[in-house]
Design goal:
111 residues
Length: 111
C-alpha cells in the first residue's frame, strides 16, 4: 500500500508590535503606485504605447495591490474597527486601479 502524506503549513497570526509596521506597508503600497503612475506618464508622453511598455506599470500596480492586501491582513488583527475599514477601502481602491490598468472592468467595479 502506498500512503499519501500531505503536510499542512500553519501560519501563526501575530499582531504587529508597532504602528510603524502598518505605516511601512502603507508607504510601500503608495511608493509602488506612484512609480506606476510615473512610468505611465512617461509612456504616455511617447508616441506609442505597446505591451512591453505596459508591463512595468502592471508589475508596479500588482506590487502596490499586494502591499495593500498585506496592510489589510495586519490591520485585521492589530487595529480598531475604524482603521480596519479605512484599510479595506484603501485596498479596494488599489485593487480597482490594478484591475482598470489590466482592462479587467468586471473586477474593477466589483469592490
Amino acid at each position: 500500500d502506498s500512503t499519501i502524506v500531505k503536510t499542512i503549513k500553519v501560519e501563526k497570526v501575530v499582531p504587529v508590535k508597532h504602528v510603524n509596521i502598518l505605516w511601512y506597508l502603507l508607504v510601500s503600497a503608495e511608493r509602488s503606485w506612484a512609480h506606476a503612475n510615473e512610468l505611465q506618464q512617461k509612456f504616455k508622453a511617447s508616441s506609442s504605447i505597446n505591451r512591453s511598455k505596459r508591463q512595468p506599470v502592471l508589475k508596479k500596480l500588482k506590487r502596490a495591490n499586494k502591499w495593500a492586501q498585506l496592510l489589510v491582513e495586519k490591520a485585521k488583527i492589530s487595529t480598531d474597527k475604524e482603521t480596519q475599514l479605512e484599510c479595506n477601502a484603501y485596498a479596494a481602491w488599489m485593487s480597482a486601479n490594478y484591475a482598470l490598468e489590466k482592462m479587467d472592468y468586471q473586477v474593477s467595479t466589483r469592490k
